[in-house]
Design brief:
By secondary structure, this protein is of the alpha+beta class. Helices cover about 40% and strands about 20% of the residues. It has twelve helices and 17 strands. The strands form five sheets. Strands 1-10-11-12-15-9-8-4 form an eight-stranded mixed sheet. It has a three-stranded mixed sheet with strand order 7-13-14, with no helix packed on it. The chain has a two-stranded antiparallel ribbon with strand order 2-3. The longest helix is centred in the first third of the chain and has 38 residues.
């Protein structure tokens, strides 16, 4: 959530940022609602102050035996006025909050300007593209040929955009998650977490997934929301808490299933595992100070990149332009992995810096170093960051396609072979 005080004093910054994101300016509407809300609140407080004074005058008049007719009439008028002002305050407040809830974060100053993903900036391309003496097959063709990837039975069980994996492909999915978690925890300083897969509405709101992406999330009949990413739970671990600066940054990682309705994906990636309602992902989350935030973003990006390098997968690092930034992000790097069957790079990870945007919604703050024992010292909002380290299903897809052989078998990257109990090639199973 954006700072309303900033909007009041520098509305042009908000409007300029919205234009960069391809959206209409709204500062005038916000300032008008804010002015009405504050005016109604002032009038309400004045009425309440007068009501309290009037109560004393009424008591004093009764004690002296004086006529209280005028005071009673004024009291009735105040009751009506207070009720009206309370309605105004609530109405203006809700309208103002509804607008603030759907305002995206402000892009960082160094984010390239652009209208959509076509204007993202490729920072570098890494790895060597595989050379085949045959026409490379798609992952779903390979998986079905091997008898280890079953979309037909998944549809029977759950409908479209699900898959059943068998045998060594199921083992490869499990191996990838363990490999990624081990790298992030043993080498890169992240703390492993196993969080709930369902969260309260206020939790999803705190990380700005609600109300913005409501249509892309699944909700249970009890009102809980299935996580679209474990970022929701990991970031919210510090919601409504006051941290000490000396304990920052906090770094969390988790492997979880994730659930997305893919509401806006009609007709996109309808075959295969690229875009599913349920998928596994290893998430990275950092909670830090404003001063550490930029360096932490670069560190997180390298952590995600480490996985791609160890698996020897070709990839690109892309800086998103203003028109393609996620709702909560002020700056994002994407990793796109090479898929031979599509002859292009596809997204496999995003690492985003969210400034204090989520922290304001979660009310997550810290006490600056040296003031940890001073309960009156000024508090500041933390900065939050999140990234995929990596999307497990898409990594499996990339391995299948880049490591395929002419007979449809799939070589296992050296880094994963110990996680596969020595299996070096996935072939057709009985």
């Amino acid at each position: 959530m954006l700072d309303l005080k900033m909007i009041r004093t520098q509305p042009e910054i908000l409007d300029q940022a919205l234009v960069k994101r391809g959206k209409e300016p709204v500062s005038k509407e916000i300032l008008d609602l804010d002015a009405h809300h504050r005016a109604s609140l002032t009038e309400l407080q004045n009425c309440q102050t007068r009501r309290n004074a009037l109560a004393k005058e009424f008591g004093e008049a009764k004690r002296k035996g004086e006529d209280t007719t005028a005071l009673s009439a004024e009291s009735d008028q105040l009751k009506t006025a207070i009720a009206q002002r309370e309605t105004e305050v609530e109405t203006y407040g809700k309208e103002l909050q509804n607008i603030l809830d759907i305002l995206p974060n402000l892009p960082a100053n160094d984010v390239p300007h652009g209208k959509d993903e076509s204007e993202n900036k490729i920072l570098r391309t890494e790895g060597t593209l595989p050379q085949f003496s045959f026409t490379p097959k798609s992952h779903f063709e390979l998986g079905e040929m091997l008898g280890l990837m079953d979309f037909e039975r998944a549809t029977k069980l759950s409908g479209a955009r699900f898959v059943v994996l068998y045998g060594n492909l199921a083992r490869l999915e499990r191996a990838l998650s363990a490999f990624m978690i081990d790298i992030h925890t043993r080498e890169l300083g992240y703390k492993e977490v196993y969080p709930p897969l369902m969260v309260l509405e206020k939790t999803a709101y705190g990380t700005s997934h609600l109300p913005k992406t409501r249509e892309d999330m699944f909700q249970t009949t009890q009102g809980l929301w299935l996580i679209p990413t474990s970022e929701v739970a990991l970031t919210s671990l510090v919601a409504d808490e006051i941290l000490n600066e000396e304990n920052l940054p906090l770094r969390f990682t988790a492997y979880t299933p994730c659930f997305r309705a893919e509401a806006g994906a009609a007709g996109k990636d309808t075959r295969g595992m690229i875009r599913q309602h349920q998928f596994g992902k290893v998430e990275l989350v950092s909670i830090t100070t404003p001063e550490q935030s930029v360096a932490e973003h670069e560190r997180m990006t390298k952590a995600a990149e480490t996985i791609l390098q160890r698996l020897e997968l070709p990839y690109q690092v892309v800086e998103l332009c203003t028109g393609d930034l996620g709702f909560a992000a002020e700056k994002t790097y994407d990793f796109n992995v090479w898929l031979p069957s599509q002859n292009t790079y596809r997204e496999i990870s995003s690492c985003s810096r969210c400034s204090d945007f989520q922290a304001r919604r979660m009310n997550s703050r810290y006490r600056p170093q040296g003031n940890s024992n001073d309960s009156k010292s000024p508090l500041q909002f933390v900065h939050t960051l999140n990234g995929s380290g990596l999307a497990v299903g898409r990594t499996l897809v990339a391995i299948m396609e880049n490591y395929q052989e002419a007979n449809g078998s799939i070589r296992i990257p050296k880094a994963l072979q110990t996680y596969m109990a020595g299996v070096e090639i996935i072939g057709k199973e009985d």
